[in-house]
Amino acid sequence: QVQLVESGGDSVQSGGSLRLSCAASGPMSLRFSMAWFRQAPGKKREGVAVMSRDGRHFYADSVKGRFTISQDNAENTLYLQMASLKPEDTAMYYCAADQRACGTACFNPALLASWGRGTQVTVSS
What we know:
The protein has 125 residues and is mainly β. The protein contains no helices and eleven strands. The protein has strands at 3-7, 11-13, 18-25, 33-39, 46-51, 57-59, 67-72, 77-82, 91-98, 114-115, 119-124. Strands 2, 4, 5, 6, 9, 10 and 11 form a seven-stranded mixed β-sheet that branches. A four-stranded antiparallel β-sheet has the order 1-3-8-7, with no helix packed on it. Strand 4 and strand 5 (46-51) form a beta hairpin.
């Protein structure tokens, strides 16, 4: 498994932007599918964005056009650029990874083996 540490969460006003980072360490010579999830209090964990092993991007409908997932392979870091933030984006955001090759299937949190501890994003109106 790979170890993941998220950072970049903050409190912002509605309409603002944030960039989350996920630093990965471990057997990075292997290829991974990577994803961002979020979980608000009292709600299920939901997939936000997925980057498949072949570099394709997939997004939840709720964030399409506002969020962008990217990866810096040299730094072993996954990013989530978030723009036009809304109060409903408020949640704990988690980074996840798995060696399986998956696209939209990786929106199912049960399929990903490695998880970070999360970083809090709060958007006020």
